[in-house]
TrEMBL record:
Pfam families: His_Phos_1. InterPro entries: His_Pase_superF_clade-1 (IPR013078), His_PPase_superfam (IPR029033), PG/BPGM_mutase_AS (IPR001345), PGM-Related (IPR052765). Substrate binds at R30, H31, G32, E33, T34, Q35, V36, N37, R90. It comes from the Eukaryota. PROSITE patterns: PG_MUTASE. This is Phosphoglycerate mutase-like protein AT74. The active site is at H31, E121. PANTHER family: BROAD-RANGE ACID PHOSPHATASE DET1 (PTHR46192). The gene is LOC105179702.
Length: 269
């Protein structure tokens, strides 16, 4: 739901120039429900990256593609979309359902699809025995989810490092306009990934602290977060999302005010 409020825009000339080549939006989408939601024991014999969507998950993803189009994000007739996707089966299947076989996102509107390994799920080791998995979750909750390292796997801090490397490359691509975005175009990036990876993407993007990260809630299956360029020429969650949503996601009042500052500038606080 778009956060309209009583805010209006007064764009400076420099901010207009800056916005001419920036992708209008970055939409972060978590994959749909999977086989694990139906039977968690599949992790004992199916590699994590090969886990597939369930029938419900496919329906969720298809519906999410329609929602993204229906919420009037794409009002400019010259809109384009570029997809980034984690290499897991469930994320690639989610992306395919979002695209709707070319119906939801026609092929002529999709300027690129890139599989990005740095957007993969946190590595939990190899096959996961259920009792060990439960023990890891208990220990992580007590230790802190950012620094806890899964035995034979990754910590959230490790995932943060590779997501940061991806974002640094993405910013360079934006600054040099490698997407070929022009003044009349409205380019949208859709990133299909995993819950923790999305949280760490936001953490890096907005320079949130570890304590702020620890307070965030994981996105539900096929939930999405819209980061959009505001009047102030900066990316913000507050352009599209309302304060109530941000609170539900674990953002403090201070973090919400910072999002509004990024979106509308100091005159709107």
């Amino acid at each position: 739901m778009t956060n309209t409020g009583n805010l209006s825009c007064k764009k400076s000339f420099n901010n207009k120039q800056k916005q001419n080549y920036l992708p209008k939006r970055i939409i972060l989408v978590r994959h749909g429900e999977t086989q694990v939601n139906e039977d968690e024991t599949v992790l004992e014999y199916v590699p994590n990256y090969k886990i597939k969507l369930s029938k419900k998950g496919r329906h969720q993803a298809h519906k999410t593609g329609s929602k993204i189009r229906e919420i009037k994000l794409f009002q400019n007739s010259d809109w384009k979309v570029f997809f980034y996707v984690s290499p897991s089966s469930r994320t690639r299947e989610t992306m395919e359902e979002i695209m709707g076989g070319g119906e939801t996102f026609p092929k002529e509107k999709v300027v690129g699809v890139r599989e990005e390994c740095r957007l993969r799920e946190q590595h939990f080791g190899n096959f996961q025995e259920m009792e060990t998995r439960k023990k890891i979750k208990r220990m992580r909750n007590g230790y802190g989810k950012f620094f806890y390292r899964v035995p034979d796997g990754e910590s959230s801090a490790d995932v943060h490092d590779r997501v940061s490397a991806f974002l640094e490359g993405l910013w360079r691509d934006m600054e040099t306009n490698r997407f070929g975005n022009g003044p009349s175009n409205e380019l949208n990036l859709i990133v299909v990934s995993h819950g923790l990876t999305i949280l760490l993407f936001l953490m890096k993007c907005f320079n949130w602290s570890i304590d702020q990260f620890e307070g965030l809630t994981n996105p539900g299956n096929c939930e999405y977060r819209v980061i959009e360029v505001g009047c102030n020429g900066e990316y913000s969650l507050s352009v599209h999302h309302q304060d109530e949503e941000l609170r539900e996601w674990g953002l403090s009042q201070e973090m919400i005010e910072e999002q509004k500052l990024r979106a509308y500038g100091p005159g709107f606080l």
